[in-house]
Amino acid sequence: MATSDPGFDARALRQVLGAFVTGVTVITTLDEQGRPHGLTANSFSSVSLDPPLILWSQSLTAPSHPVFRVAERFVVNILADDQVEVSNRFARGSSDKFAGCPTVPGLGGVPLIEGCAAYLECRRMDSFPGGDHVVFLGQVDRIERTGRQPLVFGSGRYLVAQPHDLGEPTAVANIARLQAVRLATRALVDLSDELDETLGLGVWGNKGPTIVRWEESSEPVSDNLRTGLVLPVLTSGTGLAFAAWLPRETTAPFIDAEIAEGAPVGEGLPNAQLAEQLALIRANGIVRLVGTDAFSDLYGTSISAASVPVFDQSGAMVLALTAIGSAQRLDLDEASPLVRGLRQCAARLSQRLGGRSPAALASNDPQENA
Ligand SMILES: Cc1cc2nc3c(=O)[nH]c(=O)nc-3n(C[C@H](O)[C@H](O)[C@H](O)COP(=O)(O)O)c2cc1C
Fold first, then answer.
1. Atom of ligand 1 nearest to the CA of 59
2. Looking at ligand 1, which atom is closest to the CA of residue 22?
3. Would you call the peptide bond into 66 cis, given omega within 30 degrees of 0 as the criterion?
């Protein structure tokens, strides 16, 4: 085939294409012997609603290409934000991709990977040459949307989707929060690399304390750390940080509901002592939870946590940086690298957001000012 020099190289083209952020799919099919095949693909796109048509493209050099070229059916499994491992697994050339990967048979027996955000079960309608790829056009026969949040991919990295929420009248506040999450996400990656601890980034969402980002240590405390995880206010490090620094009117409905549901406030936090406990957290500038069993269903073990606040220009707490780890492993001593690292990271982020440092706010009770 004739080629021409377009004046840019493949690397530059890949970088430009990386600015177009996509979801991540695994396309699955069966070969003529009924063996499953699958590959990670972000070339998926919608084509037509009536009739329902989609497309994706496959490299001619992909080992599974001969199978997809003749397969009559395929499934587009749209990955959820906790399926990075699934994406990596299906992006590697291996004959064993499905081992230990739970699936259910769909139309024609083609496997649907469990835990995805959505599924499109398709019949191959046509295929077209596209340079070093082949474009497959599929007619959609059956669809399913689960409640899971989709995984996102852009600039060669996995990302999580955040609602933009820029509607009036809170546009400025939301842009600021988005900016805070963006800055903190980068800082969290660096801090997790430096400390080798599992770190979470918490925001106050409409369901309460919500983790929007995890960075795992080399010894993950759980393989079930989902973004979008909503935490209790009274028994989680992140929740207690928000309880200490957000205005009482914001947190009170959640705290009241947890107490009404029998939250184990007795676990170091009897209701009558809550105000005192939160004042102590503010004075320390940090939440320390040592050896709590409140999350044993999530982590399977007793864990410890530390959480520090990040403030914006208005002095409002916008983020919580939280470290979690097994109670035996996490060192929450004031002089420990973890506590020092968390404090420094939060102070630097607050500074960049134009806010005051947590230390400067230690004596300031926003609940009294609320
Ligand atoms: C996020 C991501 C997106 C990808 N998208 C495509 C794609 O659209 N088409 C493609 O042929 N390969 C794509 N790949 C690469 C394939 O997943 C990879 O080459 C895989 O090993 C092919 O499977 P096979 O070896 O079983 O043929 C992608 C990889 C990643 C990590």
1. 11
2. 1
3. no
* pLDDT tens by residue, 80-121: 988 999 999 999 988 899 999 999 999 999 999 999 999 999
C-alpha 241/C-alpha 80 separation (Å) is: 28
pLDDT tens, residue by residue, 2-18: 456 788 899 999 999 99
| Burial 129-163, CB ≥16 within 10 A → b, else e | eeeebbbbbbebeeeeeeebbbbbbeeeeebbbbe
Q: Ligand 1: which of 40, 83, 96, 98 to mutate, judged by most atoms within 8 Å of the beta carbon?
A: 40
Calculate mean pLDDT across residues 343-370.
Answer: 67
CATH fourth-level superfamily of 162-369: GAF domain (3.30.450.40)
Ligand 1 centroid from CA 22, angstroms: 14
Q: Which residues have C-beta atoms less than 6 Å from ligand 1?
A: 24, 39-43, 57-59, 62-64, 87, 91-93, 153
Residue ranges per domain, the chain?
20-153, 162-369
Q: Write the CATH number of the domain with boundaries 20-153.
A: 2.30.110.10
